[in-house]
Structures are given as structure tokens and as C-alpha cells.
Amino acid sequence: MGIFDFFSKEKKESLDKGLEKSKSSIFDKLSRVIVGKSKVDEEILDELEEILISSDVGVETTLKIIKRIEARVERDKFTNTSELDTILREEVAALLAENNSQDVQNSFETANLPKPYVLMVVGVNGVGKTTTIGKLAYNFQKNGKKVVLGAADTFRAAAVDQLKLWGERVGVVVIDHGMNTDPSSVAYDAIKAGIEQNADVIIIDTAGRLHTKVNLMNELGKIKRVMQKILPEAPHEVMLVLDGSTGQNAVIQAREFTKVTEISSLAVTKLDGTAKGGVVIGISDEFKIPVKYIGVGEKMEDLQVFNKMAFVETLFNR
């Protein structure tokens, strides 16, 4: 099966469009570096290193990629600059393939998951957390799944109201207690409602701020403990939402959150309209936590299941 076989034509076009700025930024810089040169030499590799770092791939991941390309150039003795695109694509793909995070062919399918499947979502304000939850609910529902949402980010009235709006728009039940209420009691009631309504998926919106680590750890810990009173194995997944357009700030946020709670998946949003798409490669490489979804546009369908090979093929193919 080809890497795009499970993509619809629309999804492939959406991925191309969403990564357009990142892609053209990389290739504009790369074209200036190799103009008039036929052989990949040390100078070109130094420039390539700068290009990848400026595309927010991250220093550590960039050094790994450069090392792999250097070894290949050394092995092949003469590497033409016209082959650099292909080599770059192949070596980034190989690096990500070695990571322990698996691509998920269709993450909106729940056939092999426990029922109800409880997904707890964390992330700071402004990263597109609530919008991501709304789009997840839409896509699960489109796959014939019954969804219940829990508005447990209770410290911002806007977060609760926004989730309720998404619930109305998508046509799913939202459990809320309003603002400044105990997040864990909202999570408890959402799971209770989900069980009563025979829901396939329950998505709990939480912690919209990185306040002190101790407070955040305590709050998320309490939410989990209270959920487990009614469903011992909950949450089945803790997803961290990151804003890809913030580049290395997204990496810093991932580091902070992984210190205070166990993160089992990532969603990277707002990749359209930014040249920092390389951050997904750095995040995937550094954390070894599956990047499960990427946001490449405004439409509901623009929250896509992340496929490493399709992403690399799209980003590094002229």
C-alpha cells in the first residue's frame, strides 16, 4: 500500500496546502545554497543544518539528520546537489521510522478500543485545544461513534462556552458545571453520562494553563482519581495539544507537560500559515510520543491523522 492510499484526494490537497509555507521556506533557502554547485560538500551541509534549525526542526534532531546525510555522502563519494531533496526526504523518514511512535491509519475508528474510550485533553490557552476537541468530536461522529464532551477547563468562562458551542455545532452532548467549579466533578459527571448514554468516546477538556507545576500535577492527578472511581481504567489516553506555529515554544510546552503528567499522544495544530512545520519532526523525534493528529486548516476535516511518511513526503518534495 502506498503512503497516500488511505488519504482521500481532498486530504492530500489539504496537507499540501497546510504545509505550503514551511515547504517553500525550506526549498527557497535550499535553492539559494546549491545554486551553481554540483556536489554536496561540507559547506552545503552546514547551510542545510541552518535551514533545518530555522524551520524549527530543533537542534538535536537536525544534528541527527545531518549526521545521517554526511554518512551517506561519504559512502557514495560523489553526491550530486540535485539528489539532495531525495536524500533529505529519505533520511528524515528513516529517522522517524526508527522512533517507537506508530502511525495510526484511522484514529477516528474505535473498533479495537475499550468502550467508552476516555480521552483527556491538556494544553495551555490559545493552542487550539477546544477547537481540536470539537473537530475530534465531529470526526468520531462522522465515523458513526457516539461522543460525550466534558467541559472541565473551568477556570475560563470562554473555554466552557466555546466547548458548549462546539457541542451544539457538532450535535454532541456537553457536560458542564459552568466556570470556577471543580474540574474533577465535571469529569466524573461526563463519564457517568457517557456510560448511561452508551457513548463510544468521552473527551474531557482540562487544564488550560501552565501555572505552577505542583498545582497542575495535583489538579490532573485529582481529575484522574475521581474519574477512576466510576471507570477504573480512565483515562485511556492523555493528549497534549501544541500550537505548531509557535515553533520551539511548542517543544518547551511539551517538556513541561511531560514532567507533570503522563502524555500518551500529541496533536500539533495551526501548521497552515506558518513556516515552522519542521517542529513536528523535532517533536516526534524528541519525545517518542505519537503525534496522532495535525491541524492543517480551518475545516473540520483539516484535523488529520498524522502519518509520518506522508508528512515527510509532502514537506520535502518539490
Put the structure in a nutshell.
With 318 residues, the protein is an alpha/beta fold. Helices cover 51% and strands 12% of the residues. Strands 3-2-4-1-5-6-7-8 form an eight-stranded mixed β-sheet, sandwiched between helices.
Q: How would you describe this protein?
A:
With 318 residues, the chain is α/β, with parallel strands linked by helices. It has helices at residues 9-18, 20-34, 42-54, 59-76, 84-98, 129-142, 157-170, 183-196, 213-230, 248-260, 279-287, 308-315, and strands spanning 117-122, 147-151, 173-175, 201-205, 237-243, 265-269, 291-295, 303-305. An 8-stranded mixed β-sheet has the order 3-2-4-1-5-6-7-8, sandwiched between helices. Helix 3 packs antiparallel against helix 4, helix 5 packs antiparallel against helix 12 (308-315) and helix 10 (248-260) packs parallel to helix 11. It is elongated. The two termini are 22 Å apart. The mean pLDDT is 89.
Derived structural class? alpha/beta
Q: Could you give a short account of the major beta sheet?
A: 8 strands, mixed
- How many DSSP-defined strands? 8
The best one-word shape is elongated
**What spatial order of strands do you see in the largest sheet?**
3-2-4-1-5-6-7-8
Helix and strand element order: HHHHHEHEHEHEHEHEHEEH
Regions with little confidence, pLDDT below 50 for 5+ residues: none
Our measurement of the CA-to-CA distance between the termini, rounded to an integer number of angstroms, reads: 22 Å
Share in β-strands: 5-15%
Report the average pLDDT across residues: 89
Helix content: 40-55%
- Rounded Rg: 21 Å
**Annotation field: number of helices:** 12
